[in-house]
Specification:
By secondary structure, this protein is an all-alpha fold. The chain has eleven helices and no strands.
C-alpha cells in the first residue's frame, strides 16, 4: 500500500511538471518503476497505460485554458502514434542504448538554445503567426513517438524543444499541444504493448496509482502554463532539457565522470538554471512596467 501511495505522489508530481513544462511524466515514472526492478517493457507499458488517462485530462484542461493549437496536434499526433505503436511492438528486441547518447546531444543543443533565447530575448514575434509545416511536424512526431515507446518517455523532451526552437508557437501553446497530442501516442503505445506483451505485461495497480496522481495535477498544471509569463516558462523548459540530457550523457558510456564531479555538474547547472529563470522574471516585469508606462503616456496625450 505504501508503494502505491508513493507511486500516486510520483504521478502527481510528474504530471504537474509535464503539464506545465511539456515533459517529464514518462521519464520520471518509468525511472521509478525501473528502480524497483520492473523490466523495461513492462515499465513503459504501465506508464503508457496510465498516460492514456492523464493525457486526456491534461489535454482537456489545456483546451479549456486556450493552450492548444489543434492543427499542431493533428500534424504531430498521428505520426507520433504510428511511431509509438512501432516502438512498443518491437521493444522486446530493439535497444535504444546506443541511440540515447546521440539523441541526448541533439536535445542538449536544443535545450541550450531555448534556455539562452528565452532568458535573454524572450519571444520573437516575427515568426509567431507563421504555420508549422507538416513536413517538419510529421517526421518529428514519428521519431518522438518511437523514442517515447522504446525509452519509456521522450515525447515531451523531443517534441517540446524542437517546436519551441522554431519560434512559431508561443510556449504555452507548444506545451498544451504536445500534452494533448500525447494522448494519441499513449493510446497507440498501449495497443502496441498489448500486441507484443499481452495484458500480463502491464502492472495494473501501479498504472492506477500513477493515473490517480496525474489526474489530480492535470488542471493545476494547465492553469500554471496559462498564467506563467512565456519568457519565464521558456527559460524553465530550457533548463529542464539541459539538466535532463546532461544527466543522460553522464550515465552513458561516452564519458566517465566520478560521482562527486557529476554532483558538482548538476549543482552548477541548477544554479545557472535558477539564475536564468530569475533574470527572465526580472526582465519580464521590467517589460510589463515599461509597456504600462507607455500606455499611460499615450492615454494622457490623447486626453490632452
Amino acid at each position: 500500500m505504501r508503494q502505491l501511495i508513493l507511486l500516486a505522489l510520483v504521478g502527481l508530481g510528474a504530471q504537474l511538471v509535464d503539464g506545465s513544462l511539456g515533459m517529464a511524466y514518462g521519464v520520471t515514472s518509468t525511472t521509478l518503476l525501473l528502480a524497483v526492478g520492473t523490466n523495461p517493457a513492462a515499465a513503459s507499458a504501465t506508464v503508457h497505460l496510465a498516460e492514456i488517462g492523464t493525457t486526456a485530462a491534461s489535454g482537456l484542461a489545456h483546451w479549456r485554458f486556450g493552450n492548444v493549437d489543434w492543427r499542431v496536434v493533428a500534424r504531430i499526433g498521428v505520426p507520433g502514434a504510428i511511431g509509438a505503436f512501432a516502438g512498443a511492438t518491437f521493444l522486446s528486441w530493439l535497444s535504444t542504448e546506443t541511440a540515447a547518447p546521440i539523441m541526448s546531444l541533439v536535445l542538449l543543443a536544443l535545450g541550450l538554445y531555448v534556455l539562452i533565447r528565452f532568458t535573454f530575448s524572450g519571444i520573437s514575434t516575427a515568426h509567431l503567426h507563421k504555420p508549422l509545416r507538416r513536413r517538419f511536424l510529421s517526421p518529428l512526431g514519428l521519431v518522438a513517438g518511437f523514442i517515447d515507446a522504446t525509452g519509456g518517455g521522450g515525447w515531451g523532451p523531443v517534441g517540446t524543444p524542437a517546436i519551441l526552437a522554431s519560434g512559431r508557437l508561443e510556449p504555452r501553446k507548444v506545451i498544451g499541444s504536445i500534452d494533448t497530442s500525447e494522448f494519441l501516442v499513449a493510446l497507440a503505445a498501449s495497443l502496441g504493448f498489448l500486441v507484443g506483451l499481452g495484458s500480463g505485461g502491464v502492472i495494473l495497480p501501479a498504472a492506477a496509482a500513477l493515473l490517480v496522481g496525474g489526474l489530480i495535477a492535470a488542471p493545476l498544471a494547465a492553469w500554471l502554463v496559462r498564467h506563467l509569463p512565456p519568457r519565464v516558462l521558456g527559460a524553465a523548459v530550457g533548463g529542464l532539457i539541459v539538466l535532463t540530457n546532461v544527466r543522460t550523457l553522464i550515465r552513458s558510456d561516452i564519458i566517465t565522470v566520478s560521482s562527486p564531479a557529476s554532483n558538482a555538474i548538476y549543482l552548477g547547472i541548477a544554479v545557472v538554471w535558477a539564475a536564468a529563470v530569475a533574470y527572465s522574471l526580472r526582465e519580464h516585469r521590467r517589460s510589463v512596467s515599461s509597456s504600462a508606462a507607455t500606455s499611460s503616456a499615450l492615454a494622457d496625450s490623447s486626453v490632452g
